[in-house]
Amino acid sequence: xxxxxxxxxxxSAILVLSLAFSGxxxxxPVLDALKEALDREPVEEIVAIPLEEIxxxxxxxxxxxxxxxxxxxxxxxxxxxxxxxxDNDMILNIEDFRRQMQAIKDAxxxxxxxxxxxxxxxxxxxxxxxxxxxxxxDGWKATHTLALGVLKEFGYPFTAFLYxxxxxxxxxxxxxxxxxxxxxxGGTLSSHSVSxxxxxxxxxxxxxxYDKWLLxxxxxxxxxxxxxxGDTGAVINTFAYPYGIYNDRVIELAKEVGYEAxxxxxxxxxxxxxxxxxxGRYIVHGTxxxxxxxxxNFGGGQITSSGRKLMTATKTDEGETEAPLVTxxxxxxxxxxxxxxxxxxxxxxxxxxxxxxxxMRISGFxxxxxxxxxxxxxxxxxxxxxxxLEHCGVxxxxxxxxxxxxxxxxWSFQVKRIADYLSSDAxxxxxxxALPPEAEPADTPTASL
Length: 449
Ligand SMILES: [Zn+2]
What we know:
By secondary structure, this protein is of the alpha/beta class. Helices cover about 30% and strands about 20% of the residues. The chain has 11 helices and 21 strands. The strands form 5 sheets. Strands 1, 4, 5, 6, 7, 8, 9 and 10 form an 8-stranded mixed beta sheet that branches. Strands 14-21-20-16-17 form a 5-stranded mixed beta sheet. Strands 13-15-19-18 form a 4-stranded antiparallel beta sheet, with no helix packed on it. The model is unreliable at about 1-5, about 15-25, about 40-45 and about 420-449 (pLDDT under 50). Bound molecules: zinc ion (ZN). The site of zinc ion (ZN) has 5 residues, from strand 4.
């Protein structure tokens, strides 16, 4: 059975390779080598690899990504960090930073990388409906000595905006090796100018010399990063304006020299069609921690504590367990084998629901046109295109009649990677049972929300 799976995977690899190499003279030896490998007896070590460790074969068919244009990103901007108290808004205590990273995790907000962000803006790939991006400016040493450890702990990608004149110059600047370590641990390296001056200030320059200076600030800084760190693959051509200050000419030239996006400091959620050269960030203040809370608050989509209770089983005085008032499918925390699941939430136990107020949001789709079966109290949505995310979150918000307060419930489930390559009636290796549409539901709802 297991070797059967190995063969199936290898055969699909052959199929993909034949497509990839069609018309190419190198195809024949590659295919021969693969066929030969298949003719050999299966090797025991391969059979023993646990299912979740088998790398998935390449996507057999290229699919158009579904880009969620309703998605919103809270982009955070940090500067320097300290282990002590901070009396400077640009320096944040590292434990406060850790608590903020934990708050992002507790809110179940995915953290996306700069590459993911740009791909979404270009309509090439999708991001979760609500997510966060982390940026750190200037190149302070504590980015490496303090923040990197926390970011690694959480596994969050981040972007360091560095300015040329403050790279490897001693004092509290990062060395080249330290910057390389950022790049090797989820860091994207991008430009923050050459000299970190206010770019909208002409300083008495003529038009010609102002342009020349702006071009240096924009181009030399990026060129320097490419020359010194280009081999890490972490340099991406985005820019952060020093002090967040720019004018129309700065924008024009930034576009002209090929920046894909440029970042300012005015905190608001980034939506899909926001101008690429004026992307806002929430600059977190070291003394007051201002701007952090709004960055992760996505309004009506926040799961309410009463919403959380609705999904939790309770114990009666007699010690009996009472089922949660609201039940969902696929169940919270489950692992499903079907990439086209029916998402369903049973609200029949709730009275005086305002039907008009119900909204459903799903990772990768944003707000979806759900069905509401008023007789059975079921709110549902049939996923129309195969889920491409391994982790899928659902949020349902509603009001009670006569109330202005929204109740929001949320849960998530995971999709088996292997589900991509098996039809719904396929069998799992080592099992004679057909793959169930859903994994076994947990006995009690998980407390992972
Ligand atoms: Zn700066």
